[in-house]
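Worked example 3. Consider a protein that binds N-(5'-phosphopyridoxyl)-D-alanine.
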Amino acid sequence: MSRIAYVNGQYLPHGQAVVHVEDRGFQFADGVYEVWSVFDGRLADFDGHLTRLWRSLDELRIDHPMTRQALEMVLKETVRRNRIVEGLVYIQVTRGTARRDHPFPAEGTPPSVVITAKSLPLSKGNALAAKGVAVITQPDIRWGRCDIKTVGLLPNVLAKQAAKERGAAEAWMVDDMGLVTEGSSTNAWIVDEEGKLRTRDAQSNILRGITRAAVMALIAEEGLELEERAFSVDEAKRAREAFYTSATGFVMPAVSIDGVKIGNGKPGPIATRLRALYLEAAERDAI
Ligand code: PDD
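Given these inputs, the predicted complex is written out as structure tokens:
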């Protein structure tokens, strides 16, 4: 079946789904994005991702492309037209099309909106999670506003490529103090030597992951101890467990960091349990 993309008000076959050469997303990475996972044709953590999209737009003073209700309809329609059962839906909103010039274009320039969807069977992620994945570390060379989900992802792309070239699934980025910030497209977690769950404080320079927030709620429900405090690469390597969270990976156990085995080299019990709980809740609450 052919894929359909939404581009500025139209549903188009992928081959015809294009934006202008002077779209500011293309010229300046002047835009933001969001990713929802799809369960049974329904979108998971719907409000969380939509609220963060609105915040990203507001932080960059990009006009809202439509109302929340209208956007909800278009996202669901894109999923429906692509017949996605398990997969992802992606939206990108840019500051629109204008003659190339750094300052913002004239007021009233409409933002560009692109929405795509793709299938991704849950069984594939589950198989990966059952084995656990390798993680490497890379210096964090990003800008100071990583809390905004912009399409300016070049450092993330380079970090992920470095991971791929070393047979790893993710790169954890490390700040000047030797502390892990987050993954190239995920939030980073450990169960430290004392058995305490740790993830970096989201006031700092990381994306406030929607999956991270959902997992935090599950941790509280389970009565587990969590500390929102950055950890060093050394602490991560000595941890009992390591894992990462995102809308695409859910909760993914990491079994090595820079080639150093974590725990017994198998997915840990806490990460495995949190993955199961997250999937159950996300599927139940998807709309
Ligand atoms: N990435 N940190 C970064 C840098 C991310 O790009 C992402 C998401 C996350 C996790 O956020 P969430 O739980 O809300 O998905 C953390 C998406 C999935 C992507 O770039 O495809």
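Take a moment to read the result before moving on. The chain has a mean pLDDT of 97. Helices lie at 24-28, 46-59, 68-81, 122-131, 154-165, 210-222, 233-238, 269-285.
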